[in-house]
Amino acid sequence: MTNREHGPGPAAAPDAAPETGRPPRRDWAWTRVGAPIGPLLLAATREGLVQVVFHADERVTRRALTRLEGAFGGPPLPELPHLATAADELDRYFSGELHAFTVPLDWSLSGGFNARVLHVLADGVPYGSVVGYQDLADRVGEPGAARAVGAAMGSNPLPVVVPCHRVVASDGGIGGFGGGLEAKRLLLALEGVLPAPLF
Fold this sequence. Notes:
Blueprint: E1 5-6, E2 28-33, E3 40-45, E4 49-53, H1 58-72, H2 81-94, H3 112-124, E5 131-132, H4 133-139, H5 146-154, E6 167-168, H6 181-190
Parallel strand pairs: 5-6
Antiparallel strand pairs: 1-2, 2-3, 3-4
Helix pairs in contact: 3-5, 4-5
């Protein structure tokens, strides 16, 4: 990938919350990387990759960094090891060399039903395959929850690495995607599920 840039800049807005209301401080770092689907912001903690943000232009990056500062109780560090691993693995994924991510994941930005669904997705829907919303609901033991599975995909803090692009509609459509349908088509084409775009 090209144009990799590291935190802590651009600076996020200062957190005006009083010290007593702040979450416990956790070390985190971020970087922004170029990708065929547009710039991605990656954030990691000492536990693992914690967030992937699509369309990471300056405005989106500033908003994401402000949220992350609030979630982790302070500004970022310049670098953490899991961040470099994630950037390298995404680079190899987009070049077609990597089919399974090994970077550790920090699931702290997801919880409850959404986290259950995302864990099943991460563990059970490999590269080059797809799953329907209803099938994924069945796999988590909630057969009536196909719509809630869609909401869980929309809440995914780790898209691409936790492959919500592999969840498709039962009618043969590709379904929705937080990164946009064109990005979903490109990811599915990269994995051989859809024909590559002609242009």
